[in-house]
Specification:
7% strand, 3-stranded antiparallel sheet, mainly alpha, 153 residues
Length: 153
């Protein structure tokens, strides 16, 4: 048995809502071609260019481990995985994790997994997967900081 406490049904709903919001944003937002994103307003034939939202970059002039993730998700949503990786190397993997949240949270919420031995065995490794992704974000950020002159991002 897993040492983790089971999630409540409302927690599954909240996590699903966050994942769906991130994915919806990835499909709605558009890249400008200059590294920024915009929200198209087709009925007004206008667009709203989004400001830079990274406080670390704005205040200190330094990127953070999550810098480029929004742009990475936008490119991944369009199947542009090379550009997605260039924005943030962990972006495509995190985009996939977001997509996988949809069936996972629905199955957990509805209780359909009850009695699936393989499901409960797989859930034991979720904590490790999360830590690998966090380590990957931090590791890629350190590499970007050390080798920013040589890296494509």
């Amino acid at each position: 048995m897993s040492s983790q406490a089971p999630h409540s049904r409302s927690e599954h709903v909240w996590i699903l809502a966050v994942a769906l919001t991130a994915l919806a944003g990835a499909f709605v937002l558009q890249p400008t071609g200059t590294g920024k994103l915009y929200v198209p307003l087709p009925f007004l034939n206008e667009k709203i260019v989004l400001p830079d939202t990274c406080l670390s970059r704005t205040i200190f002039g330094l990127t953070c481990p999550g810098c480029g993730l929004t742009r990475s998700f936008v490119h991944a949503a369009r199947g542009e995985f090379r550009q997605s990786w260039q924005c943030n190397p962990l972006g495509p993997a995190l985009f996939a994790v977001c997509l996988l949240q949809i069936p996972y949270r629905i199955i957990e919420y509805t209780g359909l997994s009850e009695g699936w031995r393989i499901w409960s065995r797989g859930k034991e490794y979720l904590g490790a997967v999360i830590w690998v992704l966090v380590a990957g974000l931090i590791g890629s950020w350190v590499i970007r900081m050390l080798f920013s002159d040589f890296a494509p991002w």
